[in-house]
Design goal:
The chain has about 290 residues and is of the alpha+beta class. Helices cover about 45% and strands about 10% of the residues. The longest helix is centred in the middle third of the chain and has 22 residues.
Length: about 290
């Protein structure tokens, strides 16, 4: 039992009790209604209150539970798919009981399962929650990163390309060759807005095949040449040196080195359970990018 000071309990109760909400669409607003559950979105202490609320979420020694806000994932591994499924189903059953206890509604239709393996498994084990079978997917999106079942990162990189091009179109009047904006500000737009679209999560997918990384380099090179009004005879390497901008590979490696150097100092149970290994040039594991 937690010995929470009564005054703090009363303070939090006054913060949450009898709160009102209104739905606004355009210039029209609904009548105010009383919130019977939940916490104020955007409230400064809402993340803390949510963490307290899910503090007793069940875990098992055969699975790894990863949580970021309300995005939750369960990981299990074993050479035998049946044991993997049994571990996940056991954990899901505990979660189902916990949901009922704390009156949490789970959207089963948004729940996905991905079987990560080198080879193709024709007969995959059944995974259920609330007596409903969770379909096996070829990929799943978690925290903005698309994880395909072979971890080739092709789908994720295709998604990056699409998002990058969409944002580039919106910024085109500012960074076009005939734009009157000074070059240093165009470069600032690229480094502050466009490059983060490419680099997000790169310590994870940065070990993708060279052919996939090259697709992103082409995107970057085209924008840099456009910003600098480069002629066809100018080399990409020379342009980068002139504007003191590292290549995409060097930038990704720098971020990854900082990430993996600091990861052991992160006080997170899920991260601490990740196997430590020495990167191998022939391996496709994430730390390969450090070589």
């Amino acid at each position: 039992m937690y010995k929470t000071p009564p005054n703090l309990v009363q303070l939090l109760n006054s913060y949450l009790d009898d709160r009102k909400f209104v739905v606004r669409i355009g210039n029209s607003s609904s009548e105010s209604k009383t919130m019977k559950a939940g916490i104020p979105q955007g409230g400064k202490i809402s993340p803390v209150l949510y963490s307290i609320y899910v503090n007793d979420i069940p875990t098992t020694h055969k699975t790894l539970l990863g949580m970021y806000a309300d995005d939750t994932t369960i990981l299990a591994r074993n050479k035998n798919p049946k044991y993997t499924a049994a571990a996940i189903n056991q954990h899901l059953q505990k979660l189902d009981n916990w949901f009922v206890k704390w009156k949490i509604a789970l959207n089963v239709s948004k729940t996905e399962a991905v079987y990560f393996a080198k080879g193709e498994k024709k007969h995959k084990p059944v995974i259920k929650i609330k007596n409903k079978i969770i379909p096996w997917s070829q990929q799943a999106k978690y925290l903005g990163i698309i994880l395909d079942n072979k971890l080739t990162w092709q789908s994720h990189i295709s998604s990056i390309k699409t998002k990058f091009r969409n944002v580039t179109r919106k910024l085109y009047p500012l960074i076009a060759r005939d734009s009157d904006m000074k070059r240093k500000y165009k470069i600032l737009i690229y480094t502050a807005i466009l490059r983060p679209i490419i680099a997000y999560g790169c310590p994870i997918w940065g070990s993708a095949a060279k052919s996939n990384i090259n697709k992103l380099e082409v995107l970057e090179n085209n924008i840099i040449r456009q910003i600098c009004k480069a002629g066809w005879y100018m080399r990409n390497e020379d342009i980068r040196k002139a504007i003191k901008l590292p290549s995409l590979k060097d930038f990704i490696k720098k971020i990854s080195v900082n990430f993996y150097n600091n990861i052991e100092n992160i006080d997170n149970e899920a991260i601490q359970q990740i196997d430590k290994y020495t990167p191998n040039i022939k391996s496709k594991r994430p730390r390969k990018i450090l070589l």
